[in-house]
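Wed. Picked up where I left off yesterday with FLYWCH-type domain-containing protein. The coffee machine is broken again, so keeping this brief.
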Amino acid sequence: MCLLSFTLKSLAIPSRSKQQYIYKFNKHVLLLSVKFITMSKSGKQHLMINKYIYYKKSTLQRGMKWCCTNCLCRAYVKTSHELEIQEIRGEHLHQPAKYHQLADGTYIKVGI
Ligand SMILES: [Zn+2]
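Structure written out below (tokens, as returned):
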């Protein structure tokens, strides 16, 4: 089962380390690996959650909306302005794209 098929809206975050969020959803425990990365070509900040990459789509009154970089995918994430994950919606019906981290810390997409 794809972990990101869960809707996390209004769930509390019981504990949080640096880049890992633990969510409890009924009996399920979700561990999300969350990372903000910078793309090498554009210099833009993207959000990486469990290997899926989201780009910043829009700024909302209460935060920001991030959409999956796969243009056919409708998964999205909402964060606060402080970049706390607030909501993860949608299911990825594709494999995550492969990204490579360069020596300067930025990322490039590799492969197709
Ligand atoms: Zn996707």
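Quick read: The chain has one domain: 3-110.
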